[in-house]
Amino acid sequence: xxxxLLLPLRMALVVGxxxxxxxxxxxxQRKASAKTPRVEVRKPRADATGTVEGTVRGESSGAGGAVxxxxxAEGPTPKPRPAPRQVVSQRGKRFLPHVLAVPVGTExxxxxxDTMFHNVFSHSRPNAFDLGLYExxxxxxxxxxxxxxxxLLCIIHASMSAFVYVVDSPWYAQADAQGRFELRGVPPxxxxxxxxxxxxxxxxxxxxxxxGGLVSVTATLTQDAERTALVPGKEGPPGQSQLGY
Length: 245
Fold this sequence. Notes:
By secondary structure, the protein is mainly β. It has one helix spanning about 1-35, and strands spanning about 50-55, 65-70, 85-90, 95, 100-105, 105-110, 120, 130-135, 140-145, 150-155, 160-165, 170-175, 180-185, 190-195, 205-210, 215-220.
């Protein structure tokens, strides 16, 4: 009888010894779990873009309105997206702005704000065009599909002259009156910097290395364009200094 009575006591003793050990083990697991370091997964960063800033230098005529752009020195240059519709006004017998830079494929509207008739045409190939005569309040448009300078003229008022420069690059800008410019968002790499002014027969060029920061450059214009007081008529040869009212 005695061994039977002792059996429950022995079982209780074993259970009492095991429970603290189990509790201690669980507590130890919780502490170990709490000390497990967190692993932060970071996405790879894209290459930082750079900025090209500088000054365009000209002769006594200055470099204001110069057009600057970048092309890749090696490999193709990405095609630019056409800009939203641009407007050149005919006001006071002038084209305003005098120089407009646009990417390939951009539509430009020519708005007559004067009380007289105007015309817009150009002999500049391959962007030659003629919008005819139209009155005040009317705008006629032209889409420029090829890169290069386009000289704007009016058959009625030969004193009116301006330029649209069409660029085939997503990185372009126009210099301010002091010749300063800035090109942002340029991926790292080797580039050719082009600079054109209405006094230039051809753009000047120079190599530029772009990293992830700021690059400062100075561009010197060629300014070798033929200068004449007369402008072409629609047939091509130089006309009078003033053909109309």
